[in-house]
Backbone:
């Protein structure tokens, strides 16, 4: 599904391999997916993640495993958005996805 995915500053790079079968394709259709593990701020009451622009789900709160899967439909236009909330204060990070390589095999 992916290889060599790294986050450096506000850029995410690596290779996403097109998925053409399996449960993720049954649920979301063929395409390129990235799975990421997050480390929320220890004092955050909520951390939400999503793609901007979104292809559907918008921002979704992380659950206790802090893992999330995203379908990348336009790596040059979409950015990964992370919003952390603590005591009413929001902090937002945006990550550039244009450095991802999309591979058909």
Residues:
């Amino acid at each position: 599904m992916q290889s060599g995915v790294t986050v450096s500053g506000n850029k995410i790079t690596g290779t996403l391999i097109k998925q053409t079968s399996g449960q993720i394709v049954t649920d979301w259709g063929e395409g390129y997916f990235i799975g990421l593990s997050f480390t929320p701020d220890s004092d955050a009451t909520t951390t939400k993640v999503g793609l901007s622009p979104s292809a559907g789900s918008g921002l979704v709160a992380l659950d206790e495993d802090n893992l999330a899967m995203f379908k990348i439909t336009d790596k040059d236009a979409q950015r990964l958005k992370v919003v952390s909330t603590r005591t009413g204060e929001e902090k937002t990070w945006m990550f550039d996805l244009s450095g991802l390589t999309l591979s058909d095999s």
About this structure: The mean pLDDT is 94.
